[in-house]
Amino acid sequence: MREDVESLDIADVTANWVNAAVLQRQIDDRIKALADLSHTPLFFGRLDYLHAPGADEAEGGEGERFYIGRRHVHDAVGDPMVIDWRAPVSQPFYRASKKDPMDVGLRRRFGYTGGDLTAYEDERLSDPAEAEVVSALLQAEIERPRVGPMRDIVATIQPEQDEIVRSGLSGSVCVQGGPGTGKTAVGLHRVAYLLYAHRERLARTGTLVIGPNRSFLHYIEQVLPALGELEVKQATVDDLVAHVEVRGVDSADAAVIKGDARMAEVLRRAVRSHITPPTESVVVVRGSRRWRVPGHELEEIVRELTARDMRYGAAREALPQRIAHAVLVQMERSGEAPDDRVQDAVARNAAVKAAVKAIWPAVDPAKLVLRLLSDADFLAEHAEGVLSEDEQKCVLWERPARSVRAAKWSSADAVLIDEVTDLVARTHSLGHVVLDEAQDLSPMQYRAVGRRCTTGSATVLGDLAQGTTPWATRSWAEALRHLGKEEAVVEELTVGFRVPRDVIAYASRLLPHIAPGLAPVSSVRENPGAFEVREASDGARDVVAACVEALEREGSVGLIAADARIPDLASALSDAGLTYLGPGEETTAATRLTLVPASLAKGLEYDYVVLDEPAAVVDGEPDERTGLRRLYVALTRAVSGLVVIHAAPLPEQLGA
Ligand SMILES: Nc1ncnc2c1ncn2[C@@H]1O[C@H](COP(=O)(O)OP(=O)(O)OP(=O)(O)O)[C@@H](O)[C@H]1O
């Protein structure tokens, strides 16, 4: 297939160089998408249907065989050899069961080692004599040691995951799932599925995956390309609202207020306050004639524009045209026959421009937020009845900033600027947005994400128990409301694919304290996992020793510690001659150890985790609940084993 595309000669089919360039670009993209990945086999499954799909079963009819793979592959004459996993015909590969065989006689799974086919496994779904067994290949895939970035799970998507992956484009979905239940994997595969099922529409409108930080995005960035999808954008929320350079940090209290949805009302009022009802008439001189639009008529125009659900900036652009229209009506009344050009000329007339400037001045979003945070009176005027006096005091800068450039903007401030930007001019909306680790967003951040999918849909992924910001959401209903996707269906994933049984049981002791009501994850891993709690007698040296031990086994090792302890541990590792990476950097066979500050551990996983000083992880956060949640995240990163090392007493909530 790739050679066919490479040999295309477009010289005769393109009329001009623009067409030629566009076509060549498409061809190059296609060649790139058809790249042969030596470790990525073309197919991983086979389905033998009892009847050709679509044929009337009652008539008997021949069965049909399909190979299922990452992408569609056809032979030299165009007959399909491998069916894309996303095609409807492939669906029984994921969903069929003994209970509901979906007309499948045989399901075969292929196992690979590197790029070599090394195993296969058959299930005769329609044979009542055969008992249902757990797939050994699935089990092997789950237990596989982890090295390098996140991989796709196309070969082993589970039925409850598949339901989310294949849910329609028009509706939004929210997935609550404990650590390692495959939320991130499901979100990424869902994008791939939607791109397959609605390629043209989404190519036009765009798709976006939002993750918590750069290292996480780096960790997941190869999943979609491996599925042949190269066009999906990835960003953090901070990237989306990067209107100013962020150099400041808010106190937790200030950040909570700035992230509160009530701020939207304050900002809306502040923007609207720029509109000054006209008192004087506008006089337009054209040739020897003067046309007067009286104050009361201007007032009516302004009232009408304010009442409409228009963006501030759009209404500002409409205003001169409305004034010009009023002039035109007068011209017509006096027997002239002005056309559109006259209206445009009147709209550009200096007197009209001056009136617009006075009535409806341009608003610079960053300057407006700067003023709100610097000028107590201005803030009080617009926050009256919305924020209490104490709250106003809390968000005001201690020292007013002199200019947008000089201000020490925080990331919550950038979100406020984004809100104002949208009040002035509508934000471009995408076709689909995947929001991962969604529990950590503030209401104002949800609004920022929501306006990027007003005309599209969203997949919202998260775990309430892993919310580690002071403004983390309390419920999905609330989060979805701020996002503008109240209609989203909330699904729950409870089967864990990452964390071994003993480890998840230990971590789940925290659940009643951090998210009462959430059920613990049940691990599907057969291997109970290595798990040990050690009291340190020799400080950092014990931690280093545990890392060395872990490195003797196969796979990646993550040393997770409270952010404040990272520098000391870094020098201890270096002193011991151990090389290590930062989170998000790719582990290789040569360097398998990563030193992870607890604040960046979210979403990542390592075969063996050495967790340093749990009490310090808890103490590193502004309050105990957040601290325990941070600890819960750190405890649930391990795939094969966890060693907890402590000198200080363990947090009492970890007691049995
Ligand atoms: N169906 C599956 N088959 C094989 N592996 C799977 C499957 N589902 C998930 N996994 C694996 O389990 C691990 C955890 O998945 P993922 O990171 O998507 O979970 P998560 O719910 O986002 O976790 P967290 O809450 O910690 O961010 C990954 O290594 C993923 O590849």
TrEMBL record:
<feature type="binding site">
    <location>
        <begin position="177"/>
        <end position="184"/>
    </location>
    <ligand>
        <name>ATP</name>
    </ligand>
</feature>
<feature type="domain" description="UvrD-like helicase ATP-binding">
    <location>
        <begin position="156"/>
        <end position="509"/>
    </location>
</feature>
<dbReference type="InterPro" id="IPR027785">
    <property type="entry name" value="UvrD-like_helicase_C"/>
</dbReference>
<keyword id="KW-0547">Nucleotide-binding</keyword>
<dbReference type="InterPro" id="IPR027417">
    <property type="entry name" value="P-loop_NTPase"/>
</dbReference>
<dbReference type="InterPro" id="IPR014016">
    <property type="entry name" value="UvrD-like_ATP-bd"/>
</dbReference>
<dbReference type="Pfam" id="PF13538">
    <property type="entry name" value="UvrD_C_2"/>
</dbReference>
<dbReference type="GO" id="GO:0003677">
    <property type="term" value="F:DNA binding"/>
</dbReference>
<dbReference type="GO" id="GO:0000725">
    <property type="term" value="P:recombinational repair"/>
</dbReference>
<protein>
    <submittedName>
        <fullName>AAA family ATPase</fullName>
    </submittedName>
</protein>
<keyword id="KW-0067">ATP-binding</keyword>
<dbReference type="GO" id="GO:0005829">
    <property type="term" value="C:cytosol"/>
</dbReference>
<dbReference type="GO" id="GO:0016787">
    <property type="term" value="F:hydrolase activity"/>
</dbReference>
<dbReference type="GO" id="GO:0005524">
    <property type="term" value="F:ATP binding"/>
</dbReference>
<keyword id="KW-0378">Hydrolase</keyword>
<dbReference type="InterPro" id="IPR000212">
    <property type="entry name" value="DNA_helicase_UvrD/REP"/>
</dbReference>
<dbReference type="GO" id="GO:0043138">
    <property type="term" value="F:3'-5' DNA helicase activity"/>
</dbReference>
<keyword id="KW-0347">Helicase</keyword>
